[in-house]
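tool_call: predict_structure(chain=1)
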Amino acid sequence: MESLVTTEWLAGELEATDLRIIDASKFLPDAGRDAAAEYEAGHIPGAVFMDLAELVDSNSAIENTLPPAEKFASRMQSLGLGDGSRIVLYDDSPLKSSARAWFMLTMFGAHDVAILDGGIAKWKAEGRPIEQGKTQLRHRHFTVWQDDKNLRTKANLLANLHSKDEQVIDARPAARFSGAEEDPRPGIASGHIPGSLNIPHSSLFNADGTWKSADELKAVFTDAGVDLGQPVITSCGSGMTATVLIFAMHLIGKTDAALYDGSWAEWGADADTPKAAA
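tool_result:
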């Protein structure tokens, strides 16, 4: 299975017994949308709902940080995801939140995970079948292991300010990155990590919500000043859209991109971290 699948492909695979479809929609608190309610109102047949808002480390002082491996495995088993499952993720969110689910699943040991190109919006636009209510699947064993090689901490980022071993790319909108627009969360400074580059995650998509082609994605990165031959760390507001950048690089064959999971929620809240603007 390719990492990015089409609606046509998925329609032909709906009856496959090893296929698991996941609605991984998540919205910002001020969006006025309820991801779980929207899932129940209409989802791709057989899809289950992955609650990304709950899939976090509840003991962390930083919002939206990755959950412990044991918690993740437990939630996946309850969704019916297990060893040998082919997993297709989709969302209906401006955050493109299925990329966060893809990052977690691959980090915690899932081997065959894809994102639906265009999400459920494209599926609906094509008049494909929709199901209502909740889908319940039997629990299956999910063997979890955690590979931290693609994770970075604040300490890593502080060290990188001096070593400059890894490029840092920020996925937030340009006005947030530059500091022209204040962070929406109280107590969080504006601006960005010194030396970082800005690629708003929305620039990776076509107008219909599908991903740009490989050549177009490469151009987005190189035009922003990224050397695709060198390692990268991605950041954003709280570790969500940063994973969109990582998936985009995955699509063009770059696998050494790491996530700063604390992102600006951690960096911007620390009075001692250096910040840049404009």
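agent: The beta strands are 4-5, 19-23, 48-49, 86-90, 113-116, 151-152, 167-170, 197-198, 232-235, 257-260. Proceeding to next step.
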